[in-house]
Amino acid sequence: MICELIKKVRLSADTYDYTVFCPEMAEKTKAGQFLHILCGGGSYLRRPISVCDVLDKKWIRFIFEVRGEGTEELAKRKEGEMLDILGPLGNGFGLEDIPAEGAVLLVGGGIGIFPLLRLAKDLGGRATALLGFRNKESILLADEFAACSKNVFIATDDGSCGFHGYVTDILKNIMQNNKIAKIYTCGPKPMMKIVAGIAGEKGILTEVSMEERMGCGVGACVTCTCTVAGSRKRVCKDGPIFNGLEVEWDG
């Protein structure tokens, strides 16, 4: 689908916030799904980028970090230009199985916080967001999470803002004295592995957003696989959202 880039904001030296006009796509997009974007220039493979938000069922917002040739080309696009986007792809987060009692926790690390924003809004203020960053300068979207969440806790590796340490340490502290209904997490794989391990000890429902290098984005090339409950799964087609207690993190 050809979508117009209607808003471009540079959030940091290498992080960009794009909003595209695409009513047909926006109407059916769920939190946790992703877009497969043709970046332009000499980069011929599309890049998978998570949906950050859906606005009035007309616009889709996504945020990305420049990490290579493709995203470097994408960062050069200007407002008013057209982007070639496939989506929405993947299965999205599940909202139907949340127990009525207990806290709902969103655990995000670095750029993994972006797909959790729409989820926080869909949870209608019930979510508590735990967000981890390298330092104060790298914190993004904290105010937006605060506006749609019950609570927000920030952790920084160097202690320059919020809790000094890892976001998983905040998770451990919260779980000691609170009943937890469900956990959703997105971020670096080592972080999600720890989150799933902590949740697994108490049998808490946990959904993780997996990230792997993708080729086609629709399950045909079978390059983006992970092991879940003993079976190889395609992250693009079967995920990217999986039961965190079933993911074999070292498989």
Structural class: alpha/beta
The percent range for helix content is 10-25%
Total number of strands = 16
Rg, alpha carbons: 17 Å
Number of helices: 7
The low-confidence runs, each spanning 5 or more residues with pLDDT under 50, are: none
User: What percent strand?
Assistant: 35-45%
- Succession of helices and strands: EEHEEEEHEEHEHEEHEHEEEHE
Name the strands of the widest sheet in spatial order.
Answer: 4-3-7-1-2-6-5
Average pLDDT: 94
Largest sheet, if any?
7 strands, antiparallel
Folded structure, characterized:
This protein is α/β, with parallel strands linked by helices and 251 residues long. Helix content is 22%, strand content 36%. It contains 7 helices and 16 strands. It has helices at residues 23-26, 69-74, 114-122, 142-148, 167-177, 189-201, 235-238; strands spanning 2-12, 15-21, 34-38, 47-50, 53-55, 59-65, 82-89, 103-109, 127-133, 151-156, 163-164, 180-186, 205-209, 225-228, 231-234, 241-243. The strands form 3 sheets. Strands 4-3-7-1-2-6-5 form a 7-stranded antiparallel beta sheet. Strands 11-10-9-8-12-13-16 form a 7-stranded mixed beta sheet, sandwiched between helices. Strands 14-15 form a two-stranded antiparallel sheet. α5 packs parallel to α6 (189-201). The longest helix has 13 residues, at 189-201. The radius of gyration is 17 Å and the shape is globular.
Summarize this, please?
This protein is α/β, with parallel strands linked by helices and 251 residues long. It has helices spanning 23-26, 69-74, 114-122, 142-148, 167-177, 189-201, 235-238; strands at residues 2-12, 15-21, 34-38, 47-50, 53-55, 59-65, 82-89, 103-109, 127-133, 151-156, 163-164, 180-186, 205-209, 225-228, 231-234, 241-243.
